[in-house]
Structure formats: structure tokens, C-alpha cells
Amino acid sequence: MYLTIAVLAAILILLVLDVTGPDMIFGAALIVLLFGGIISPEEALSGFSNRGMVTVGLLFIVSRAVENTGVFQTIAERFLAAGDGNAPEKRRLPNLMVRMMTPVTVLSAFLNNTPIVTIFTPTIRQWTTERRLAASKFLIPLSYASIFGGILTLIGTSTNLVVHGLMLQNNLEGLRFFEVARAGLPIALMGYLYLVLIGQRLLPERHDVMAELGDTPREYFIELQVPDDSPLIGKTVEQARLRNLQGVYLTDIERGDLHLGPVTPDRRVAAGDRLFFAGRTDGMAELVAQTGLLPVGDETLLADTRRIRRYLVEVVVSANSPVLGKTIKESNFRSIYSAAVIAISRNGERVPGRLGDVELRTGDTLVLLTNGSFARKYRYSRDFLLVSPLDRIAPEVTGKGGFALVTVVGMILLSAVGEFLPPIGGHRIDMFYAAAGAALVLVLGRVITPNQAREAIRWDVLITIGAAFGVSRGLFNSGAAQLISQGLVDIMSPFGVIGALAAVYLATSLFTEIITNNAAAALMFPIALVTAMGLGVNVTPFMVAVAMGASASFATPIGYQTNLIVQGPGGYKFRDFLRVGVPMNIVAGITGITAIALWYGVG
After folding, report:
1. Which terminus, N or C, of the chain has the lesser number of Cβ atoms within 10 Å?
2. Are 409 and 397 in contact (CB under 8 A)?
3. How far from 439 is each of 176, 225, 447, 456, CA to CA, in Å?
């Protein structure tokens, strides 16, 4: 038991410190428990064949297939534009917020919310720019709306499927398709009311890096022109000693109407070239003296910046990126991605100093000067959570959007009514069967290719879930779950079963704010199960509480991936999430616990 508790503590510490990915942390913990004799090899491997875990993988394929059709972006643009009038009441912030959040919640109830938020983010930024509104008033609500959708159905988020899979693994009846909606729908409705009445007043009105770059390019660029008598003419960038400059680096060359960036060392300098440098823009005088180049006026800089804006792309660094933990120079960023870093934003603030020496972290927002094909090439890359061009790319509508949506609707109906259909091989038709059938139909219908299907699967997520199932079993076997559960019951004994239910919800919600949501669900599951069994009550309300608590991540950007996606584009600081999210957590907690208690008759 003490070994298991030590392993649990190590998991939490390593996840909070973000030492490495959750898949590696849980994988290592699983091996320690295996060699410690706490779990058997069969128990260690059982999570990797669990129906809930495999269903998560199948749904990755379904979501990518729908995303491939361009339906998400088309829905986003049409829904936001629908009913847009000039009447003052149509311009009110609450009205616009609800109109933006509604399609996100509906879509997120049935499909992976990460691509939905990824696609809606640049669309909403453009939408707010056209209305002269701050995107920061809408992007946190965008993330919250996707979380609200996730708690409405069994497939709304992988967390629900983790809880469902653990229930099946422990010979319990799993969650029905709309089981979580009993608590999730009241939470979503109260969440909407909170954001419209209170939250929108707490949201900051702030410009992000991309907006500032367009308005004040002098803060991001130094532009110098090559005079006709310059000794640099005809030399390569390397020969002209325009590399490894102090505090700045050459990102782009404008020659007439041609854009020649990102600049390679063998690019030759010509008379009249306009050279863009990024980095410490307060060192222009020193750079002019060092190179003999001529500074250009503000009007010229603004005009040239507008010309290259179509090559500017914003990305958010993911936890899987190979550049993580390295400086831009060490990672050979420009060589790998054919893109130059113009600016870096972290926790809503621009990172000062020499860009090449900045060590990249998860969630960092980078503004890149690219060759024009970057956005399409890295749109689905695991290296970035978000790839958003400054000038939006029109959706690639494939003509198979209708077929994909019909398939998804069929999947939903099959999973919802499967228990009333004849069993297959003695097994009830559930979400696993429905997702497997949908994935097969979409591949055979050529909505998604086999290679794309393989790439769509987030193996790191599946490894985390599979290993977490084994760790969860270890908490049972060692008696650690019973010890922790007894502590919860003792503390909350004056408040009865409702107190224990509230303690499970709050503990799960706290975990998910500091570690991943799937990990929080897997670690709290055995504790919740033992608590319910010890009290001699129905375990289902406790399982729903774990599912709700694990998804109720509103107060930090690190607890839920969609919060991390919108942090940089919204220009949010960590405290912005605390200001808006802590009250949202309180609203969700009170509403969720009350709804569960009333629905299941917990007393």
C-alpha cells in the first residue's frame, strides 16, 4: 500500500512539474507496480484492450474524417454570420456570445472538441475583428462551450469513455449514451447564464500578438534597405555576415513584390532589397552602424508588413513537439519547418530578449514567417495544438461532408438504441460497436484514407488511458483506494452520502486542474467506487460525479487542452483563467452535485 501511495504521489508531482508526457509517466508507474507485485501482467495489460480506450481511438478517426470535409469551418462561418444585422441589439456582447457558443457545444457533444476549437479559434478572431470587438471576450467562452458539449453525451469527451471503460472492467453496467447529461445539461445551462450575466464582465479586453504586429510592426520588425553602393551586394547572407547578429536575426527579404523568406544562408543580397530583422528592435541604430544598411520610414514598413501578412502564421506548441525544452536555435526550427519565428507569447505576454535563445514550453504561442505552404502542411501536425494563418484559408470542402455527417448521426443513433437491438455474439451493441462501424464506413467511403486514419489516432492519449487503467487497478489491489476513501468518508461523515459525493467531485475537479483530465478520472475512479460500496449506495452517481469533475476544468489553462489552445490567441494571462474560471468551477460544482443528488435520489 505504501509503495502504491508513493507511486501515486510521484505521478502527481511529475504531472504538475510537466517533466515529460503523461503517457511516459503513467507507463513508468505501471511498470513499477508490475515489478512491485501489486498488479499482475494481465491486469497491467487489461487497459490496452478495454473497450472504452479503443473507442476513444476510433472516435479520433471519426472526428478527423469529418474535419477533412471542411464541414466544421463551414458551419462556424455560416452560423456566426447568420442573422447578423446592424440593429444595436444584435451587437450586444451576450447575444454574440451565445450565438458563438451554441454550435460549439452541439458539435462537441458528439465529436472530439480539440479540432472544433482549433478551427473555430481563427474564425472567431476574424469575426470579432470585423465587429471591432476583442477576441479575448470570446475565446475562453469558446473553450468552455466545448467543455459543456463534452459533458452532454458518453462520446462528448474521452474522459466519459474512460469512466465507462473502468466500470465495464470492474463488472459494472457502463454509462448509457445520455447518462452524463443528467448532470451535464444543468451545468451547461448554468454555465451559459454565468458567462452571459457575469463572466463576460470578468473577461479581459486585450489584443493578441498577431493584432499588435499588424498595428505596430515597429515593435516586431526592423526593416533596412540595401543602398545601391552597398558592399554587401552580390554576397550571400552568410558572406555578408547577416547571420548570428547580436539580438536580432534576418527573417525575410522583400525584392520588389517578391517575398524571399524565410531566408537561407546562401541567399544573395541585391541592390534595393528590403531586409526584415526580428528580435530586439531597440537595437536598430547599432544594426545600421554594423551593416551599413539604411532604415526605412514607418509608412514603408507598414506597407511592406501588410504585403507579407499572408505569410504569417500563428502556432501553439504542443506537449508532443520535438522543439519542446530546446531553444529555437538548438532545435533548428527554421530548417525543420522552413519558417522564421517573429515573436513568442507566453501566458499572455510577449517574451522579451533574443528569440533564438528562448527555450520553448508547452502552450507557447509563436508567430511565424513562412513560405506560404506551412499552414496546409502542418495543419494536422502533432507538433502544434493550433496552426492559424493571419489571413484565413478558405475551407477545403470535399463534397463528402453530407456523407460524413450522416455517418456520425447513424453512429449516435446506433449507440443510443443499441441496448434495444439484438446482441452480437452475446454482447450488447454499445458505443464501441457504433464507433467501429462509423470508422469503417468513413474509410471505405474514402472520406479519410487509411494513412490519415493512422495519423489521426493520438497514441499518447491511448497509452495514458491504457496505463492509467492498470494504475487504477493497483490502487484497488494495494488497499490505497480503500485508505483514501475511508479518509474522505470520515471527513465528510457529518454531511452523509451527499457530502461524500461532493468530496469525490471536488477532489476530481482539483486533480483535473493540475493534471490531465483522463488521468484525474482514472485515479479517482477506484476511490469513488470504494466510497460508494463502503456506504452501500448506488455507484452510478459517484461515477457521474467523477466524469463531471474531470471535465470541469475552467480555472487554469493546463488542465484542459482547449484552454491551452485559446490562451495565446486570446492574449490571456494565467490570472485571467483564475478570475473567470474559479467562479465557473463553483457554479459547475454546486449545479452538478445538486443535479446528481436529485436525479439519483442521493440523500
Report:
1. C
2. no
3. 21, 55, 10, 11
Look at residue 413 and give its three-state secondary structure: helix
Q: Burial-class residue 45 by CB neighbours within 10 Å (0-12, 13-18, 19+).
A: middle
Residue 89 binned pLDDT confidence (cut-offs 50, 70, 90): very low
Backbone angles phi, psi at 435, to 5 degrees: -70, -40
C-alpha cell at 113: 472538441
Q: How remote is the C-alpha of 77 from its chain's centroid?
A: 21
**Beta strands, E only, 257-411:** 258-259, 274-279, 294-295, 312-317, 339-346, 349-350, 365-370, 384-389
Query: What is the residue whose three cell numbers read 456566426?
Result: 80
pLDDT in tens, 101-153: 999 999 999 988 888 998 888 888 888 877 778 889 999 999 999 999 999 99
* Residue reference for cell 482539483: 510
The single residue listed with the C-alpha cell 497491467 is: 44
Please compute, for residue 196, the number of CA atoms within 13 A of its CA located in the half-sphere on the CB side: 17
Contacts for 53 with CB less than 8 Å, ≥ 6 apart: 47, 161, 162, 165, 462, 465, 466, 469
Q: CB within 8 A of 318, min separation 6: which ones?
A: 324, 362, 382, 383, 384, 385
Q: What is the pTM of this model?
A: 0.86
The tens digit of pLDDT for each residue in 420-462 reads 888 888 888 889 999 999 999 999 999 999 999 999 998 988 9
Residue 560 has pLDDT above 70, yes or no: yes
Copy the grid coordinates of residue 503. 468530496
CA distance 121 to 214: 18
| All cell numbers assigned to 241 | 555576415
DSSP reduced 3-state for 538: coil
Least confident window among 33-42, 413-422, 501-510, 588-597: 413-422
CA distances from 361 to 8, 228, 317, 327, 464 (A): 25, 43, 7, 10, 21
How much of the chain is helix, strand and coil, in % rounded to 5? 60, 10, 30
Instruction: Check whether 210 has a pLDDT greater than 80.
Output: no
3-state SS assignment for residue 360: coil
For the residues of 213-271, what is the DSSP string, one character each? HHH-GGGTEEEEE--TT-TTTT-BTTTTT-SS-SSEEEEEEEETTEE-PSPPTTPBP-T
Closest CA to 39 of 484, 471, 365: 471
